[in-house]
Inverse folding.
């Protein structure tokens, strides 16, 4: 059974950092483009970042550029989202997702993604 599991949830102060993990079971992550998305209360789910199967093509939403970094460790079958300089506006449930895309393709368009994790809560507050 193909499954994605996010971890790393937490409560952090503004300006703090947090790393989220997305672990796969039932398939190998390097066969899929992986994206991170987030959904705040009352808002639509938005794309945050993605990484291609090749690992060398990444994209970021403008709101997180320069603060978030996506990476993948194929040996651990895990994708990470390192988040720094967090602000209350980053508070949301964060989801990782997998998409069957060409090797160098990476998109944060959510309808391209086939498999989703259950989400993990990130709260930024003083």
């Amino acid at each position: 059974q193909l499954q994605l599991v996010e971890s790393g949830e937490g409560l952090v102060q503004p300006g703090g950092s947090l790393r989220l993990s997305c672990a796969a079971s039932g398939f190998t992550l390097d066969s899929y483009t992986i994206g991170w998305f987030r959904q705040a209360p009352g808002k639509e789910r938005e794309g945050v970042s993605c990484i291609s199967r090749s690992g060398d093509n990444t994209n970021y939403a403008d709101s997180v550029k320069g603060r978030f970094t996506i990476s993948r460790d194929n040996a651990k079958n895990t994708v990470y989202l390192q988040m720094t300089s967090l602000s209350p506006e980053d508070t949301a449930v964060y989801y990782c997702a997998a998409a069957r895309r060409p090797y160098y393709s990476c998109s944060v368009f959510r309808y391209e993604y086939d498999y989703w994790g259950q989400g993990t809560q990130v709260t930024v507050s003083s």
Observations:
- The two ends are 40 Å apart (CA to CA).
